[in-house]
Amino acid sequence: MAKNENSASVLAFEKKLVPSDGYMYGTKWDDRGNVAPLSLKEKSVRGTISNRLKPAVQNDPAKLNSEVEKANLQKVDACALGTEQDTLKLQFTLKVLGAIHQPSACNNAAFKQSYSRAAKGYVEREGFRELARRYALNIANARFLWRNRIGAEAIEVTVKALNKGAEQEWKFDATEYSPRDMSAGDKQIDSLANRIAKALASEDDFLMLDIACFAKVGKAQDVYPSEELVLDKGKGNKSKVLYAVDGIAAMHSQKVGNALRTIDTWYPDFTNPDASAGPIAIEPYGAVTNLGKAYRTPKDKQDFYTFFDHWARGGALHRIEDEHYVMAVLVRGGVFGESDK
C-alpha cells in the first residue's frame, strides 16, 4: 500500500486543562474559616453473602443457609466528617494553557501546517467561547464533587484567578445549576468563561485558578475520596483502598479533570431519552466506562479520528458542534498518531 504523505505517525497534544489533586477538609457551614484536613480511617467489617449463587445452592435451603452462615470479613478504608463538622471542603487548582495550534510532537511538516491552519481558523471564528462556557459551568455546578454532591443541602463554589495583576474572584451557588443542563449561563458564568476562553485561545498565555467548594452534607457524614485501583491484590488485604496525599484524603486529578470535561452533548444518542447518558466526558470514542458503552463509534463516523483526520487536512465538518468536539478532545490531550502505510 502506498505511503500517505500527509500522515503523522508521531502526533501528540499536551492537555490544556491541568487540574491538581483535590484535597478534602472538614468544617462547619457557619464557620468555614476553621478547616481541618480529613484523614482516612481503616474499618474491619463483617458483611453478608449477597452475590449471585449457583442454581444448585439457590434452590436448596440447607445449602443456602450454609453459604449465608459464612463470614464475609472485609478490611476497608473510610472517610467521614468529624462529629461537630457538617461541611466538606474540596480544594484544587486548575491551570488553563494556550497554544492549541501547536502539537507537542508531530513528525510530518505538511500535516502540522494543515492542522495549524485549521486550529487557528477555529480560534479566530469561535474563540473557544462555547467550550469555555461549558468548562465554567462544570466548575460552577460542582460536578467535580461526584458522589459527594448527592444529598448536599447547600453547595458554594469560590473561584479565584491568581495571575499577578489580573486577580479576580467569582462565587457560585452550585445548587442553581443542574449538571445535566449544558445550556445554562449567567453573567458570572460568562465572566469566568471569558477568562478561560482567553487563555485557551492565546499563543502562550495561561490562567491559574484556585477553586474551593463547600458542601453541607451533615454532621459526621461519610465523604468519598477517590478509590485506588489495586492492581496487585496479593500485596494487600483491604477490599477498598482510598486515596490520600500526605495523610489528607483526596481526589485524583484525573477524576477532577474528567468532571470538568464532561461537556459532550453533541453525540448522536443525546437527544434520545431512552439511550442518552446526559452530558458525557470528552473522549475519542465517547467511552462511558460505568455504562460499558462507546457513544461515538467509527462505524457511525462520529468518533474523534473520523472528524480529525478530515478536518486537520483542510476538510470542512458538517456541523460546528463536531468542530467543538474535535477541539475539546485536543484540549483533553493525548497521543493521536496514525500509521503512515
Keywords:
341 residues; alpha+beta; 2 domains; 9-stranded antiparallel sheet; 3-stranded antiparallel sheet; 8 helices; 18 strands
Description:
- 25% of the residues lie in helices and 26% in strands.
- The chain is an alpha+beta fold.
- The protein has two domains: 17-40 and 79-258, no CATH class; 261-341, no CATH class.
- Strands 2, 3, 4, 7, 9, 10, 11, 12 and 13 form a nine-stranded antiparallel sheet that branches. It has a three-stranded antiparallel sheet with strand order 8-1-18. It has a two-stranded antiparallel ribbon with strand order 5-6.
- The radius of gyration is 23 Å and the shape is globular.
- 35% of the residues are buried.
| Gyration radius from CA atoms, angstroms | 23 Å
The multimeric state of the shown protein is single chain
- The helix-and-strand class reads alpha+beta
Biggest pleated sheet: 9 strands, antiparallel
Helix content: 25-40%
Q: What is the domain total for the residues?
A: 2
Secondary-structure element pattern, one letter each: EEEEEHHEEEHHEEHEEEHEEEEHHE
Shape: globular
Q: Count up the helices.
A: 8
| Terminus-to-terminus distance | 6 Å
Strand content: 25-35%
Got a strand count?
18
Which parts are unreliable, with pLDDT below 50 for 5 consecutive residues or more? none
Mean pLDDT: 93
Please write out the topology:
Layout: E1 11-13, E2 17-19, E3 22-28, E4 31-37, E5 41-47, H1 55-58, H2 61-69, E6 72-78, E7 87-97, E8 105-106, H3 109-126, H4 129-140, E9 154-161, E10 168-173, H5 187-200, E11 206-216, E12 244-245, E13 248-251, H6 253-260, E14 262-264, E15 280-281, E16 287-288, E17 293-294, H7 304-311, H8 320-332, E18 334-335
Antiparallel strand pairs: 1-8, 1-18, 2-7, 3-4, 3-7, 3-13, 5-6, 7-11, 9-10, 9-11, 12-13, 14-15, 16-17
Helix pairs in contact: 4-5, 7-8
